[in-house]
Amino acid sequence: ITICTKDKQNVFWEKYVGEDIILPPDTNNVNVPLSDYGKIVDKAINAISSIYDSAEVLRYVIMPNHVHIILLISNGRMVSSPTSISTIIGQMKRYSSKEIGKPIWQRSFHDHIVRGEKDYMKIAEYIDTNILTWEKDCFYE
Questions:
Q1: Which end of the chain is more exposed for a tag (fewer CB within 10 A), N or C?
Q2: 36 and 104 in contact (C-beta within 8 Å)?
Q3: What does DSSP say about strands 55-62 and 66-73: parallel, antiparallel, or unpaired?
Q4: Which are the contacts of 30, defined by CB distance < 8 A and separation ≥ 6?
Q5: What single DSSP character describes residue 78?
Q6: Is residue 125 over pLDDT 50?
Q7: For 40, what's the count of Cα atoms within 13 Å in the CB-facing half-sphere?
Q8: 73 with 54: CB under 8 angstroms?
Q9: Other CB atoms closer than 10 Å to residue 71's CB: what's the count?
Q10: What pLDDT digit, counting tens, does each position of 28-47 carry?
C-alpha cells in the first residue's frame, strides 16, 4: 500500500520539512530522523496490529511525502478486500490527521496484492532501500 501526503508535501522527515531532499547515491544505513508528523504516522502504523487483530504490518517505510506498507492477514493471506484496506488505511489516516491537527493525506491510496514469495521479496527490497534511492523515486519532488 502506498499513501501520499496532500500535494506531496515533504512533512515526514525532520531535516527536510518543506524542502527538497537530496541524499548522496552512496549513502549506507540511512537513518533519517522523523519529524513530529512522521513520528505520529509511525505510531499510527504501529497501532494497526493492535487495533485489527487479523492485520499485521510486515514492513513499512516513511518517506518525506509518502508511506509504503505491507499488510498481512493472520491467516496468511494478504489484505485483498478493498473494504478491509479502506477501513485500515482510513483509520490510520484519520488518527494521524487528528493528532497532527489538520488533514495531511491525499484522498486515495495505491494498493497491490502481493502474489507469491518472489513478488513479496521484490516489494520488501524496494521498501528497505527506498530511502537510499529517494532522488529516483516517482514521488520525489
A1: C
A2: no
A3: antiparallel
A4: 23, 131, 132
A5: B
A6: yes
A7: 18
A8: yes
A9: 24
A10: 445 678 999 999 999 999 99
Which positions ≥6 away from 116 have C-beta within 8 Å? Answer: none
Question: What is the length of the chain?
Answer: 141
Contact call for residues 37 and 11 (beta carbons, < 8 A): yes
Place of cell 493528532: 99
The set of residues, in sequence order, having a beta carbon less than 8 Å from that of 136 and lying 6+ positions away, is: none
Long-range contacts of 92-99 (CB under 8 A, 24+ apart): 92/41, 92/44, 92/45, 92/47, 92/48, 93/3, 95/44, 95/47, 96/37, 96/40, 96/41, 96/44, 99/40, 99/43, 99/44
> pTM to 2 decimals?
0.79
